[in-house]
Specification:
This protein is mostly helical. Helices cover about 75% and strands about 5% of the residues. It has one domain. It has helices spanning about 1-20, 30-40, 45-50, 55-65, 70-95, 100-120, and strands spanning about 70, 125. Strands 1-2 form a two-stranded parallel sheet. Helix 5 (about 70-95) packs antiparallel against helix 6.
């Protein structure tokens, strides 16, 4: 079971890191799954993940209070909405079925709006430094 959790955590970690560069693929849920799997299977991997200078920022706020650093909120929203706009433009431009070229962009914008509301309403965490304790 321990090896299976490490494998699932590592795959999830790869997807989370990939999601940092692909606006449509989420990062934080995959990293939270990684933290869960590593936390149940390997203290060393879990500690590495939480203390990682880039990946830890995504996790610590959620694990210790549900918050998101202001910089992460800004980055999420500044990548989310251009990606959504580009997706809608491509759908309207390339699809001839009116149900699809109207319905799909409306659905995408509705989901992006819900994600935006969720991000904006999360408490803000203080950015982590090497010697500081995280707090939200």
């Amino acid at each position: 079971m321990r090896l299976l959790l490490i494998l699932i955590g590592t795959i999830s970690l790869g997807l989370g890191v990939f999601g940092m560069f692909v606006p449509i693929l989420p990062t934080t849920p995959f990293l939270l799954l990684t933290a869960f799997c590593y936390g149940r299977s390997s203290e060393r991997l879990h500690r590495w993940l939480i203390s990682h200078p880039r990946l830890g920022v995504y996790l610590v706020g959620f694990l210790y209070g549900g918050g998101i650093p202001r910089r992460a909120k800004r980055a999420a929203l500044l990548t989310l909405w251009p990606g959504i706009a580009l997706s809608c433009i491509i759908i309207v431009w390339r699809v001839s079925n009116p149900v699809v070229y109207i319905g799909v962009p409306v659905l995408i914008v509705a989901i992006a709006t819900a994600v935006t509301v969720y991000i904006v309403t999360r408490p803000e965490c203080v950015e982590l430094t090497e010697d500081a304790e995280p707090f939200c």
